[in-house]
Amino acid sequence: MVRRLAVAADEPQAAVIGREILSQGGNAADAAVATALTMAVTLPSRVGLGGGGACLVHDPAEGTVRALDFLPRAPQSAEGRTASTSGFLRGLAALHATYGSLRWETLVSSAENAARFGHPAARSLARDIELAARISGPEHVAGILPGGPEGPPREGDTLVQPELAAVLGQLRSGGVGAFYNGALGRQYAEAATAAGYALPLEDLRGYRPEWREPVSIGFGNDILHFAPMPEVAGPEQALIWHMLTEVRPYGSVPAEERLHLLVEAQRRATAAPGGITVDGAAARRLMEGYDPNRATAPVRELAGATSFGATLSILSQTEMSVVCGFTNYGLFGSGQLASGTGIVIAPAPTPGVNALGGLALLANQPKRQVVFAGAGADVLTALTEPLAEVVLRGTRVDQALALGRAAPDFTTPAVLADEFTTAEDVRALETRGHQVWTVPGLGRATAIWCDWDRAASKICYAASDPRGAGLASATDFAF
């Protein structure tokens, strides 16, 4: 029999590690842990031991989908400028303990080797270095990544991180308890506090990830699952899905209305009051007054910061699928390392700022088969648009991720459209009354789509966002 392995991640070297773990017989949880740990080394701009994240897990053996919340949290016993109470390592440990099959040491070793012996700066990291320099100045990166006489590292430069390698070595041999309960955690908390980001040790030691039930919506013979946490935009994603399937079917709208509908749906979903029931009735109420030819959505001012996250989507030969997103709550977090650890300090989360752009899993419940698995970072549309394009319009997954995106600015009435958006789509927005500002890129996402036929065989496709210069691959596995 032939099964399909699929891996997509926002950093290519990490994606290769994930694929190797699957080829060695590991499952999607094993591959997700190894990929995430490697990204903490190769993409420290967005993933780190000081940050955290969230995952959705499809377990075919039990026929379940569960959400894992290990998002960074603000310390409860400190005021002023604080560091995040990191959930990254405890979250990955929980994922491994619940679903993993390979030894923990095996999953940590690739990340440790990359930090100890060096790795080339991939284009994904090089782009973030350039972006951080434009946003905050070159000094924001200078204290994190060793540069040469010409400034911060460039694409292809070799990066060696001995302090981070030493930390990963302790985690490999001692598990995550070495960080949360041992001297390593004390060192990190004291170093973060000394750098000006208070982090009480009791908050760090008391961190616990949480397994949660997802927001689930029936869709034909399948069930679509979103992460339930507001910080991951799960409720908003679910409301938008109801809008695009029950109120204004996305699959049949004219092409020139596509971005307008997505913008209007995003504005309405984010303007919904807290605690609203996520169902079709709520979606219909929120879409009252929608006009396909002009902007009518309410404008709600929200915090304008971006969390700058990264994602992975993985499918293993056992039909297990894991999608995750990670954040340091800022590009290169605070811009500082915790002395002696090589760990990027993640500032505490800003209220009202989404940690991620969403997680989604579409699974056939009777057959326990994954149909779509994806994760988005930074903005709602990073996941909403490719999900709608692939599932509702039949667009190929790589083409869906390469489409132009538009999203509300949320600090002004303007609409942001990225550089992938065509001039025709921009004009279509403007003729409907939207004030459009062009930006370099809107979020990033990874996704897997599996096309099943009546003989129960499948072809799976994996894709990473061209905005992030990651890597995706799908491979046949014979057994």
Helix-strand blueprint:
Blueprint: E1 2-9, H1 12-23, H2 28-42, E2 52-59, E3 64-70, H3 88-99, H4 104-117, E4 119-120, H5 123-136, H6 139-142, E5 158-159, H7 162-174, H8 177-180, H9 183-194, H10 201-205, E6 210-212, E7 215-219, E8 222-226, H11 234-247, H12 258-271, H13 280-286, E9 309-315, E10 321-327, E11 337-338, E12 343-344, E13 358-364, E14 369-377, H14 381-393, H15 397-402, E15 406-408, E16 415-418, H16 423-431, E17 436-439, E18 444-452, E19 458-464, E20 471-478
Parallel strand pairs: 16-17
Antiparallel strand pairs: 1-9, 1-20, 2-3, 2-10, 3-6, 4-5, 7-8, 8-13, 9-10, 11-12, 13-14, 14-18, 15-16, 18-19
Helix pairs in contact: 1-2, 2-3, 2-4, 4-7, 11-12, 11-13
